[in-house]
Amino acid sequence: MTDNHDHTCQVFHFDLFGTRKEKYDFLNSHRLEDVDWAKLQPQAPQYFFVPKDYNIKEEFDKGISVEELFSIKTSGIKTHNDKELVSTIPFESSCNKPYTYRPLDEQWINYDLNKVVRHRFKYMYHILDKENISMIIGPQGQAVGNMPWNLIFCSKNLVDTNVYYRGGGIVFPLYLYPNSEQPTIDGNERVPNLNKEIWDKIENIVGQVTPEQIFDYIYGVLHTPSYRTKYKEFLKVDFPRIPYPTSKDEFDRIADIGTQLRKLHLMESVPSMPDIAQFTASGDNLVEKLAYKEGCVFFNDAQCFSNVPEVSWNFYIGGYQPAQKWLKDRKGRNLTFDDILHYRNIIIVLLETDRLMKALDNL
Q: How far is 158 from 111, CA to CA, in rounded Å?
């Protein structure tokens, strides 16, 4: 639409939600003049064509840029041949390596650099067979539909490019290791992959902190529901920015829950919950079709995991619902004893993640 007086371009916005039929009915019964348009004032540099609270944008921009904090980052590995190079069963090869294929789905990769097309070895070197952890962050967007932002996970292994539903998860390793051309880095065996200026600024607020504490503080912030809601419009178009802590107490509380979340997601510290996801043992354990009924996850006509909380069944990480996807990806397979234990742990991890996220909002 244009203004007839000054010929300046104007932008108007209107949201319409509903089924396809409802949208057609609305269009058939309205003229442009009848629609309750909202006039926008797009601003540089993005010139958003949807309503934005630019006061919040200014606040968001003052936060820590994860791209600036982590010096080295990379996309995940893309084999171009997952069928042959990725498996739930270890390869009989010296190149067999643990592989974060999807959230809470650790598989194996035949990491032969002559076979894996986009191996990202220059960056994955810092992770491969090393003591390290990585944060995996989606650069933008909501994974599916209009759900809250959930493009955050962590790994201690090599990572797949499609670890998230729409792909593109960026891997930020916490430490950098020397290589044959550079036997040590500044005289150290490894160094934190952290911007020293930002690190110093955090320490000026909270006192001395370790790289792991900074990692866990960020991990905690990015799992805070109110953070995801407040900045949802800006998380659609950019990497997250992390608010600087306002005090040591705030930093410690968030970092402590971030530590618990990290250890949960790495499955290093899964609480015992004997009553959750109990397994019906009678049958051949063949995964055929999934159905969630009255708290039970049936994977064939006779067998199920009982007492599975709905929050676990529907929980999203990276646009995937791990409790559903993990079983779907094993259709046609007979679950082993280890598979059953792992699936039970998935349900517990998702349940605990939901609890800790709620606790973050109550700090």
A: 9
Measured CA angle at 127 (ends 124, 131), to 5 deg: 170
Q: What is the pLDDT of residue 182?
A: 58
Q: How far is CA 228 from the centre of its chain?
A: 12
* Residues 23 and 109 placed together within one structural domain of the fold: no
Range of the structural domain that residue 34 is part of: 11-51
Residues 6+ positions from 357 with CB-CB distance below 8 Å: 223, 224, 225
Instruction: Note whether 106 and 244 are same-domain residues.
Output: yes
Within this chain, do residues 77 and 36 fall inside the same structural domain, yes or no?
no
pTM for the structure as a whole: 0.85
Question: Mind giving me the DSSP string for 120-165?
Answer: -HHHHTTTTTSS--EEEE--SS-SSTTPPP--EEEESSEEBTTSST
Identify the pLDDT of residue 82. 96
Residue 94 · residue 196 · CB < 8 Å: no
- DSSP code at position 33: G
The secondary structure element, H or E, covering residue 231 is none
Is the same domain home to 90 and 203? yes
Q: Are residues 177 and 202 in the same domain?
A: yes
- Ranges of residues in the chain whose predicted pLDDT is under 50: 1-3, 142-143
What are residue 77's DSSP bridge partners? 160
Place of tokens 């290791």: 177
Residues 136 and 246 in one domain: yes
Q: Count structural domains, the chain.
A: 3
Query: CB 207: neighbour CB atoms within 10 A?
Result: 10
Residues 35 and 145 in one domain: no
Residue with tokens 């792992």, as numbered in its chain: 342
Cα torsion through 81, 86, 87, 90, rounded to 10? 130
Q: How many CA atoms lie within 13 A of 308 on its CB side?
A: 28
Is position 320 within any domain? yes
H or E element at residue 88 = none
The answer to whether the beta carbons of residues 76 and 120 sit under 8 Å apart is yes
Strand, coil or helix: what is 269? coil
CA distance 159 to 168: 11
Same domain, yes or no: 345 and 232: no
Task: Tell me the per-residue pLDDT of 300-312, one tens digit each, with 9 for 90 and over.
Answer: 999 999 999 999 9
Residue 3 lies in a domain: no
